[in-house]
């Protein structure tokens, strides 16, 4: 009995491996119709320039973003064709792969913009903008699958996403939770808060919440 169960489990495991390609290989070298993730997101998913860091982000958040790119719920000229070319099992496997990688170390030498810090920690209640950390967690380290980490994320990427939410170009946020605050932010506020989050230390996998 025990033997048969083990045998069945073994079959399931090998079937799974045959269906999904090795995510580390796709990340490093790509797949047919899919450019290597590392060529934009960095060798260890650390992000570079306006390409977001993926390392250490929540796996369910990453998987949903890849699914949204594939279905068109989130539109991007670069990412949409890549996500469409990946099998659903590969999108899942890549999300888990990147979630397990450690985020890059904090830029300890860089000073956070004080106006950005105020907005992040206290919000701007005069215009109904809640503190970012109310949703994105203390220090912007992220909360579960719904609220992505902003700490240690590229400032250029954070700015671009805030403008995309504000201008209605990104609208895959559940219940417009992110479009509402973004719609009330000025370019200066966006630049300041993006810089502040980019120099905050990211949560280490398995580390403190
Ligand atoms: C040619 C460059 C390029 C390649 C190759 C690439 N990406 Fe991206 N990726 C981007 C850009 C640009 C964005 C930001 C899209 C936007 O502004 O909405 C992005 C965004 C993402 C996001 C959303 C992150 C977030 O925080 O919401 C995920 C997840 C992602 N990419 C995964 C991947 C994976 C997995 C691969 C490899 C299969 C890959 N990318 C390959 C350029 C690239
Ligand atoms: C009411 C809750 C809420 C508040 C307040 C909030 N956010 Fe968000 N934010 C979200 C949700 C939910 C998402 C994820 C959208 C999705 O699922 O695609 C998000 C996504 C983002 C993203 C995209 C991250 C990525 O990896 O693509 C950025 C950048 C961001 N928020 C910045 C901010 C900043 C800066 C503030 C403060 C000015 C803020 N948010 C306040 C709920 C909130």
Automatic annotation (TrEMBL):
<feature type="signal peptide">
    <location>
        <begin position="1"/>
        <end position="20"/>
    </location>
</feature>
<dbReference type="InterPro" id="IPR024167">
    <property type="entry name" value="Cytochrome_c4-like"/>
</dbReference>
<keyword id="KW-0408">Iron</keyword>
<keyword id="KW-0349">Heme</keyword>
<feature type="domain" description="Cytochrome c">
    <location>
        <begin position="107"/>
        <end position="201"/>
    </location>
</feature>
<keyword id="KW-0479">Metal-binding</keyword>
<dbReference type="InterPro" id="IPR050597">
    <property type="entry name" value="Cytochrome_c_Oxidase_Subunit"/>
</dbReference>
<dbReference type="InterPro" id="IPR036909">
    <property type="entry name" value="Cyt_c-like_dom_sf"/>
</dbReference>
<keyword id="KW-0732">Signal</keyword>
<feature type="domain" description="Cytochrome c">
    <location>
        <begin position="25"/>
        <end position="102"/>
    </location>
</feature>
<protein>
    <submittedName>
        <fullName>Cytochrome c</fullName>
    </submittedName>
</protein>
<dbReference type="InterPro" id="IPR009056">
    <property type="entry name" value="Cyt_c-like_dom"/>
</dbReference>
<dbReference type="Pfam" id="PF00034">
    <property type="entry name" value="Cytochrom_C"/>
</dbReference>
């Amino acid at each position: 009995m025990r033997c048969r169960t083990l045998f069945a489990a073994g079959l399931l495991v090998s079937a799974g491996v045959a269906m999904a390609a090795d995510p580390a290989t796709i990340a490093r070298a790509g797949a047919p119709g899919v450019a290597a993730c590392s060529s934009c997101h960095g060798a260890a998913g650390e992000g570079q320039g306006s390409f977001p860091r993926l390392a250490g982000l929540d796996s369910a958040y990453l998987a949903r973003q890849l699914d949204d790119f594939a279905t068109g719920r989130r539109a991007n000229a670069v990412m949409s064709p890549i996500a469409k070319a990946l099998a659903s099992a590969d999108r899942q496997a890549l999300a888990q792969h990147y979630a397990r990688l450690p985020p890059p170390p904090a830029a300890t030498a860089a000073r956070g913009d004080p106006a950005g810090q105020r907005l992040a920690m206290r919000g701007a209640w005069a215009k109904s903008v809640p503190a970012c950390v109310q949703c994105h967690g203390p220090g912007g380290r992220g909360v579960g699958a719904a609220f992505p980490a902003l700490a240690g994320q590229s400032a250029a990427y954070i700015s671009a996403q805030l403008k995309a939410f504000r201008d209605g170009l990104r609208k895959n946020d559940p219940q417009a939770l992110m479009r509402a605050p973004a719609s009330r932010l000025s370019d200066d506020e966006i630049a300041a808060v993006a810089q502040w989050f980019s120099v905050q230390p990211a949560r280490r996998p398995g580390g403190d919440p």
